[in-house]
Amino acid sequence: MNKKNFKILFISRAYPPVIGGIENQNYGIGKALSQIAEVRIIANRRGKKFLPFFILSAYFQSLFSLWKYDVVLFGDGVLSPLGPLLKLFHPKKRFFSIIHGLDITYAQKNTFLGKIYRKINIPSLKKLDKLIMVGNHTISEAEKAGIPKEKCFFIPNGFDLYSIYEKHSRKELEDLLNIRLEGKKVMLRVGRFVRHKGLLWFIKNVMPKLSSDYVLIAAGGRVARKTAGDSDIYPECEKVIKELGLENRVFLFANMPQEKMNVLFNAVDIFISPNIKVPGSMEGFGINAIEGAACRKVVVASRLEGLRDAIYDGKNGFLVDPEDADKWKRKIEAIMEADDFRSAFGERAQKFTIENFSWQKIALKYLDLLEKEA
Asked: Model pTM?
C-alpha cells in the first residue's frame, strides 16, 4: 500500500495551544504522520475543562466518519473507552493508543477518579488492538496492571529540532528573566511543577550543597488546583526557596510561551531532570531531556523510569542515581568546571538525538506498526 494512501484518524484530548508534555507529544506525532500518510486530527484545543464535551463530540465525529479510515489512533489512554464503543459499530476497524506513564499509574491512585479509571480505562485498554508505549518502564507497569505484553510496543517520543534549537545569548537570557548572571553557572529544569519531576527534592537537597555561583531556573506548566492528575507543588517550592535563603539562586517561571522557553533552552549551561520515585506517578519518557540534548546542552538525568529510554549515558547525557544528592553535586560540578567538554559533548549529544529521536524517524516507526497491524 502506498503510505500516502494509508488513512489514520488521530484523536487527541490534549493539544496545543494548551501547554504540556502530552500536548506537545500529540502535536509532534500528529504533524509528522500527516507528512507521510493521510491523517485527520480530531483534537481538544481547549484544555481539561472542555474534556467531557470533547469526548462526546469526538465519539460522534468518529462514529459517522470512521468508515473512511484504516485505523484509529488515540493520543493517550484517557480516550481508551471510546475504542470498544466505536468497535461495536465498526468491528473490522483497528484501534491503537499511545500510552504515557500516567495512563497506567493513574489506576493506582486511591481516589474516586482513580477507582473509576481502574474499572473503566484499564479494561478498555485491554480491548484495543495494540498499545504504543512511550517507554519500556511503562510496559512493565502495564503488565502489572494485567495488560498482555504482546499488546505493547515501545516507540519513543520525538522532537522537532527547528522548533526549539536557536541561537540565543546569555544577555538575552538576562533580559528575559531580569536577572544578572555574570559569573554564574546556570542550570535549567523544564517540566510541570509536580512532585515526581524532582524539582522540590533538588532545591532542598542539592542546591544547598552547591556553591553560591550556581543558579537554577525552573520553568514549566502549573497544574490546576482541581485536577484529576498530579497536584501542583509550585507553592511548596516557593516556600522552601524562602526558608533556605535561595531567593537569589533559584527562579521559578510558570507557563512561559514557547519562544521564551527557547531562550532558556539555548542560553543556559546545563540541563537537569532530577526525577524521583513517587507512587502513583512516573516519567513515561522524558521529552524535555532530549530537547535539552537537541539544544547542545549536557543533560544530567535521574536513572529512573522513562528517562532511561530518553538519555543514553555518555551519548546524549548522563544518568545519576535518583535522590543521591552527593552524586548529583559531584556530577554537576565536574561538568560545569569543564567548558571545552561541555561544548564538545553538546555537539555530539545533538547529533545522537537527531539520529535517534527526530519526529520524522519516530513517525516512520509509527506508520510501519500501524500498517503492519491494520
From this structure: 0.85
